[in-house]
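About this split. The held-out portion is used to measure sequence recovery: a designer receives only the C-alpha cells and must propose an amino acid at every position. Recovery is the fraction of positions where the proposal matches the reference. Here is one held-out target exactly as it appears in the evaluation file.
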C-alpha cells in the first residue's frame, strides 16, 4: 500500500519541503498538502497587501505540479495524533507521516480586547480585510500601529506612501524601534519615520484597547484612534498546540523538535517553520531552510543514507521603508538606502519565480 505523507501549510516551510523532495519521491509514496489558500503566498509582503501598494496577485505563486502530490483546499481544525488523522472543515485526512508547517498567529499577550478591536497583517485574509478598512477611512483619520518590529515598520512606511492623508502613529514597548538591530539601522529608520510624519511613541506598553481608545502605560494614559493594527508579536499556530503533549515548549512557546524535526516523543510527526523551536527567531528564511533540511532528511531515508544536516546559517535581515529605500544587516554588514530595498525585492522575486 502507498505511504501517505500529509503536509499542513503551503507557506515557506511547507513549500521548501515539497520543492526539495519533488524530484525524489519514491513510486509508493503519495503526498497531500492542505492549506486554506489555493496557492503559496509571499507572507513578507502582506504589509503591502494591507497598505494597498501591492495587488493580491503579486503575492501569489502557483503550486508545483507533480502526479504524486495533491493539494487540498481546506481549513485545518484538529490534529488527532492517536488516530493518525487530520480533521479539516470539509475533510478528514489520514496520514502515515505528518509535516506541520502552519506558521503563526498574532500574540495579543492577554491585552484586553486587543484581538477584537485591532486589525492584523498576519494572514492573507486579515491583510485583505485591513486594506478594505483602510480604503474606507476618511482623510485625516488616525491609524495606530502597535509594534515597532520589522512588520510594523514596513507597514507604517508603506502606508504613509499610499495614504499621505492619514495620521500614522507607531507605538513601541521598548525604548527604540527594531530594538534587536544595530544602532545605525535604528537611527536611520527612526529618522525616516520622522521625516515622513510618522509619529513614533516608544516606551509605551498597551494595557487595553476598546472601540475608541488605546490605553497605555507606564503612567496610565489613553489615545483615541480610528483604526488600530496589531503587529506586536506572534505565537505558533494553536492548531499545532496538541503536539506539545509529545514535546516541550521553548520560551516563545514553539514546539521543541529533534535534529530531523520529528517530535521527541512521537514518531512520524515533524514540525517546521514558525511552530518549531530553534535557536533563531522565526523568519521566512529560517522556515525555508528547515523545510529544505526536512526534505533532505526524507530523501536520505528513502535512499538508505545517513542524514547529516549542515548547521543553519542565516544571511541576515532586510527591510523595506516604502518603495525606494530600506535597511539591512547582511552577513554582519549594515546596509542603508536603495541597495537593501533592491536586494530584498530580488530575494522575494527569486522566491516567487522559482517555486512553480
Ligand atoms: C508583514 C510581515 C513581514 C515579514 N517580513 C519578513 C522578512 O522580511 N523576512 C523574513 O525572513 N520573514 C518575514 N516575515 C516572517 C515570515 O513570513 C514567516 O516567519 C514565515 O512565513 C514562516 O513560514 P512558515 O512556513 O512557518 O509559515 P507560513 O509561511 O506563514 O505558512 C503557513 C501556511 O499555513 C496555512 N495555514 C495556517 N493555518 C491554517 C489552517 N488552520 N488551515 C489551513 N491552512 C492554514 C497558511 O495559509 C500558510 O500558507 C514577515 C511576516 C509578516 C507578517
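Reference sequence for scoring:
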Amino acid at each position: 500500500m502507498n505511504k501517505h505523507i500529509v503536509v499542513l501549510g503551503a507557506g515557506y516551510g511547507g513549500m521548501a519541503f515539497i520543492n526539495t523532495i519533488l524530484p525524489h519521491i519514491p513510486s509508493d509514496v503519495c503526498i497531500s498538502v492542505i492549506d486554506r489558500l489555493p496557492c503559496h503566498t509571499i507572507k513578507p509582503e502582506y504589509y503591502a497587501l494591507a497598505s494597498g501598494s501591492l495587488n493580491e496577485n503579486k503575492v501569489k505563486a502557483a503550486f508545483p505540479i507533480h502526479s504524486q502530490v495533491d493539494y487540498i483546499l481546506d481549513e485545518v481544525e484538529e490534529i488527532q495524533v492517536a488516530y493518525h488523522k487530520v480533521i479539516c472543515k470539509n475533510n478528514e485526512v489520514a496520514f502515515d507521516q505528518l509535516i506541520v508547517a502552519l506558521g503563526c498567529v498574532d500574540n495579543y499577550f492577554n491585552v484586553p480586547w486587543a484581538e477584537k478591536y485591532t486589525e492584523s497583517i498576519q494572514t492573507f485574509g486579515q491583510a485583505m480585510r485591513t486594506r478594505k478598512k483602510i480604503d474606507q477611512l476618511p482623510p485625516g483619520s488616525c491609524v495606530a500601529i502597535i509594534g515597532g518590529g520589522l512588520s510594523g515598520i514596513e507597514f507604517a512606511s508603506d502606508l504613509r506612501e499610499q495614504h499621505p492623508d492619514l495620521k500614522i502613529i507607531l507605538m513601541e514597548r521598548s525604548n527604540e524601534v527594531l530594538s534587536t538591530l544595530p544602532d545605525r539601522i535604528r537611527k536611520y529608520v527612526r529618522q525616516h519615520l520622522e521625516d515622513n510624519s510618522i509619529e513614533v511613541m516608544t516606551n509605551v506598553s498597551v494595557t487595553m484597547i476598546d472601540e475608541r481608545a488605546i490605553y497605555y502605560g507606564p503612567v496610565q494614559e489613553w489615545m483615541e484612534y480610528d483604526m488600530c493594527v496589531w503587529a506586536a508579536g506572534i505565537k505558533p499556530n494553536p492548531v499545532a498546540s496538541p503536539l506539545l503533549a509529545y514535546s516541550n515548549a521553548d520560551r516563545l512557546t514553539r514546539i521543541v523538535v529533534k535534529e530531523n524535526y520529528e517530535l521527541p516523543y512521537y514518531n512520524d510527526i515533524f514540525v517546521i517553520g514558525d511552530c518549531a523551536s530553534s535557536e533563531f527567531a522565526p523568519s521566512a528564511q529560517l522556515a525555508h531552510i528547515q523545510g529544505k533540511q526536512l526534505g533532505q532528511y526524507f530523501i536520505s531515508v528513502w535512499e538508505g543514507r545517513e542524514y547529516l544536516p549542515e548547521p543553519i546559517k542565516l544571511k541576515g535581515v532586510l527591510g523595506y521603508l516604502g518603495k525606494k529605500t530600506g535597511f539591512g544587516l547582511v552577513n554582519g554588514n549594515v546596509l542603508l538606502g536603495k541597495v537593501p530595498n533592491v536586494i530584498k525585492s530580488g530575494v522575494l522575486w527569486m522566491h516567487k519565480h522559482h517555486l512553480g
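Annotator remark: Residues 108-232 form a domain with the FAD/NAD(P)-binding domain fold (CATH 3.50.50.60).
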